[in-house]
Write a structure and sequence with these properties.
Largest sheet: 9 strands, mixed
Number of strands: 25
Number of helices: 24
Shape: elongated
Strand order of the largest sheet: 10-9-8-11-12-13-18-22-21
Structural class: alpha/beta
Strand content: 5-15%
Helix content: 40-55%
Distance between the termini: 77 Å
Amino acid sequence: MKKFDKDSFNIRTLREWTMFITDLVFIGICFILSVILGQAYMLDDGVSKTIIEKAFIALPVALALFFVSFIAFRVNKVVWRYARGRDYLRLVFACAVATVIFALIDQLLGGWVSGEVVKPGEEGTPQMLKAYPVYTNIGFTTMGVTVVYRLFYEMIYAKLKDKALPKQRKRTMIVGAGYTASAILEELARAGSIYKPVCLVDDDPDKQGRILHDIPVVGTTKEIPRLARKYDVACIIFAIPSINPQARQNILETCMQTGCQLKVLPYISEMIANVDLVGQAKEINIGDLLGREQISFNDAGVKGYIEDKVCMITGGGGSIGSELVRQIVKYKPRRIIVLDVYENCAYAIQQEILRNYGSDYDLNVEIASVTDYGKMQDLFEQYHPQIIFHAAAHKHVPLMETNPEEAVKNNVFGTLNVVKLSYEYGVQKFIMISTDKAVNPTNVMGATKRCCEEIIEMFSQIYGNARTEFAAVRFGNVLGSNGSVIPLFREQIKNGGPVTVTHPEIIRYFMTIPEAVSLVLQAGAYAHGGEVFVLDMGEPVKIVTLAENMIKMMGYKPYEDIQIKFTGLRPGEKLYEELLMKEEGLKKTDNNKIFIGKQMTIDIDKFIFDLKEMRAICNTNDKEKVIEKLKVLVPTFHHDTAYLELMRQKELQYQKEYSAEHKSDELKEAEEIVANVVEKETEDIVSFADYEETEDIFGVKEVSENVESGKNDVKEEGTEKPAGKTVFKESSGKKERKSGAKKKTAAK
């Protein structure tokens, strides 16, 4: 490795000194000619041998001055193959400074080089003014020659690069003829790119018919399809980063009609300074077609509550969780804990952060499930997190329809565990990731998320914000996230189709992952307890339109090259999603894109009792009873369970097939007896008529608050519960669990 660096340094140094020596040779020639021509202009009798001798004697002084000036202006450090206007200006200044210093030295020596002879009519004219032809010749010739030969070198280099890939170059149209297009053309000319610009289009009438870097402006954006055919264009580069979102969407849709490869520069706010523009051009993203601006957020408040804090991100390996980690790192937290049950994703984000921020960055990865209360308590005891972003959840709608008990265990009781521990251990802020599917839910996943929001609202209702500020952030579908429809469509198109859409009228709200995470972080700054934050996501998008645009983006024609197949709505799916429940209303924040839903009042006693029943039902894995109880916990949950009957019939069919192949009639009869006993035992477990309420579902003692006296009396086991508002004290932190068998014994 050291040998490579040394060789590389030698080559670079040799190239620098070669150009430096070439500069001095040209400057020397220019100096001699400038002195001779200047004297010839001033003298009527021609140039004497003495003047030529003086010029050669003064040459070392002039070269020394130019040498020092070039070093001072760092002319030798410029990579002239990629030089811009300011680099050439640096060269001009270096030549001018060296010339002025030489002129001053010459005048101090009495015009030794510039001459003593005064032309007729110029008696009394200061020597400096008499000698101006010599000095101006020196200055302008050195400037001109050094600049011209560098431009010539750059042109030759570009030509040689072009010849390297003659057959691979793509005929390219550039949309836009402004500064960005000019910069792209310069880069393409230097870099020997595979893109060969052949024409420009721009809607500015003043630019029509003009030429930019030898490339003509041939028409407007409305003429793109015709011009693409005329100039045999294979690729289009969209180079108007500052255009408004609606116009951007319209032009991109026009470009997609050509079937050409399409490259798009990011919005001006997203562009990276001092990095080549061509390198920032990316394949068109479906987000470019949403027709709205990227949501911008003020991060001043975000830094205030994250800096120097211990932050835990549950589900930190997922698409949202990992982006949370990436953005939180920028605000300099004291420590980050990434918690996830899937080790591969957690490992990936760990390696990314350590690679970008150093191997000693204080980031800890814990493989654990939020449903494991004991493990979670150990982690809280170990790290004492101050800020928690709760992104861990089962989010796949169709899978949760067929596994409702697992959705409730993970989403509802996993959230309950983290919420309870957050309060017990004094977490300052708890921000939960929710979804637009929680509004009037028609699927299990959305209902469990609404139940999680109710848990947060309940804790805020009981405890206020004195210790922990709980909040939820609700947004729509995230482009590019795990489980998003975009990767599915892309894979189907690559395989030749068909692209499957559930319904021609189905619509969804969309946002990008950075937008979603920015909303979450901003919500943390606004959170004071119990809020459900909602983003103004603009207009919803029809999924079939999304599919059609993706097909066009990838160079195909919808319904001709790639078919779109409508498969029907899946269980729990609805045609549109709502971001806000009617009873929640809206409240503005300082950010005009973020709103707060009005907090709902939770019937705490009933809600806690229903959660207890739900936990017991989940232990039986009875899908139908789980869904029925979920409807009790979430009154706005409307659900069609017809598919469960189909599942039950399939299950019975599987059992019959197995029994017919492997079991005798006597064994079947014995199993029926056992099944009856199990069914009777299950009914006993699920019965709550004699359920002991000595300890609530949170693992903390129930306390009854006497409203009149303001005193709290601990409710002892077996005593009647006084009237009043139920609140919770901290538990002793001991891990106490009751098995189903113990509950059953107690009931008996």
